[in-house]
Amino acid sequence: MKVLFVIIMGLCLNVSYAQEPDTTKVFIQAKELDEVIVKASYLTREDDHILAIPTKEQRKHAVTGYDLLNNLMIPGVSVERLTGSVTTPSGAATLYIDGREVGFREVQSLRPKDIARVEFFDVPTEKYAKDAYAINIVMKPLNNGGYTQLDASQGVGYLNGDYNLISKFVTGSKSLNLWAGYSLENPKSSMNENEIFNFPDYQLNRQQFYKNAGNRHTEEYVQASISNRGKKYIWMLRGGMAWNDIRNNVNNGMTDYWQTDESIKDGSILNIDSRNKSYRPNVYFYGLHTFSDTKSLDYVFDGYYSRNDYNRFYNEDDASFHSLVQEDYYYVKANANYSMAFSHRNRLAFSLFEFMRISDSEYAGTSTYNQNLRSSETILFADYSQRLGRFFFDINPGLSFLTYRLKGMEAINHLTPRLQARAAYKIDKVQQLQFTFALGNTYPRINTINNVEQQIDPIIILKGNPDMDNSILLNPRISHTLNLNKFALQTGVSYFYQNHSIISDYYIRDGHLISTFRDDCIYHRPSADISMTYKPSGSLNMKLSGQWIEHLVRGGAGHRSLFSISGSAMVNYYIQDFSFGVSLATPSRDLIDSQIRRKTFWQYQLSAMWNHGNWAIEANANNLFMMKNNVVDELSAPYYSFKQRNQSRNYNQYATLKIVYSFDYGKKTSKTPDYEHKNSESAILK
């Protein structure tokens, strides 16, 4: 029984994939020297990235991969530990473990003591060239043995819990992993919304409000994998199942209608019940082949099937509207990257991507419809990089081809060029000037390109639009970095342009407001940012960031503009087995979907952690003494406008307590990355 227990608890793989083969030996030797040198230096600038080797304090006082990324305090990199969001002024960062792209669960479960170093690619090249910003976490080598880890996080202030088991067993070149987990949250919310409908002959006003609405969300997953590592190859096979259940319930809300100063209907009882559940089996395969010291090939196959059931019931006195949708959704992603290095400090790489999506949906209830969508997107990139003395450049041209077809319609095709260009000049050992330029494209979301109509309340009818064009994106940026012994700084200015920006469109038809989509707007966003880190000692680390953004929209839906100045600050203090942290973020304003003005609130967090041996306990207090934080959304269009004030328990004061325990058996091994669990895509119009 003991042997069986060890085998079961040890099922898992270390997804610790090798660096590019031509640099692995050099890096291993160099890092031994770096760890001696970096003791007097905060960060080290390499050709196309910033190298960070965590300090003893930063490593000890972290229990997840996101904790460590946050503790490193890289200027310009903002880490949201709970959600796994990592953002930069260049855009969202893509995360990798030993060169393999990974997701939230994999980074969340990394054991910091098993991380050798972290590479921050602010000038991404080769396989990272497609990313606005890339972060590669390099793990320490594996040994034989295994471990099992249990972690539990519980919230106080609203129902919130996350519980996970991770187990791994390594023998020789083979590794087995097992993951399982369950999470639950239900932050009650309140809403007050005022809407104005401009009909041809009159103006109708509606006010809706409710309190303590339920927002229950549960997730469950189980996953297993096996991998094998040879001298010139690595492969990994993984499969499992995930379940999601999201329920939103409004009970005894109120709705009032009036025209000008005359009340039409007061005190209508409002009830809304919606449920979106899915189950998703999935399979994943990764391979890496090292042909020589200068050539390598890696490839990924990632696919899943998802059954999505959406059920929404709207009741307002005697008016009822029902949306019932059952969807079968198939997703396949295939990617291959081939890299070559040459003798003159130059490299050439090719990347091929294929994305396939199939959605078959049956709509019932108030509206009955069958919707079938098939889409395929193929992207090909070539990447060339060269270093000439202090000057470095990378050019990454590509082509994107998208084809999709809706039931009963001709296929729609888009062929679009893509380009990433980057250049850097190393002013001296601690300063670098960088320029980046991106030409890309984006397509309408799959839940908007359909022929479905759904009436969701007495006035509004949702309608898809299959005739929207793809958007062209332009994004130049100039930045400057400075890395001293105890101080690091990043400053930058950038400009973002998007044509055919997709926004909601409203018009009147037969006494109803039709809510659909349009693509004839142009969006501009100039911005400037500054971020600095000061590390006076190993025990005290501080970071301060600020940003200015101007949003400008021009086009068929009218002109809009909005500017925002926001900032954040963070301080960490370490003492023996304890660490203490404070973080603060100012309110901000944003333009959602190029159309909706959003205003957020002050946020702050106090945290304390005790870490000793195999145990770690972390307590967080969020927004203490704040009870009225809310998010305000506003929209103004010719036929429709609204102002909505949302308040949620997770906007205001709450606390969390997390306990982590792990035990090793056999020889100690590196931490396994956790199973990546992300929500299924869906083409359902909601």
Instruction: Indicate the mean pLDDT.
Output: 86
User: Which regions have little confidence, pLDDT < 50, spanning 5+ residues?
Assistant: 1-40, 669-677
Number of helices: 5
Quick one: how many beta strands?
A: 38
Q: Characterize the largest beta sheet: strand count, sense, and whether it forms a barrel.
A: 22 strands, antiparallel, barrel
* Rg (CA only): 26 Å
Based on helices, strands and strand pairing, what is the structural class? mainly beta
Q: What percent of residues adopt helix (DSSP H or I)?
A: under 10%
Please state roughly what percent of the residues sit in beta strands, choosing from under 5%, 5-15%, 15-25%, 25-35%, 35-45% or over 45%.
Answer: over 45%
What is the first-to-last residue Cα distance? 51 Å
Q: Judging from the principal axes of the Cα atoms, what is the shape?
A: globular
Question: In brief, what are we looking at here?
Answer:
This protein is mainly β.
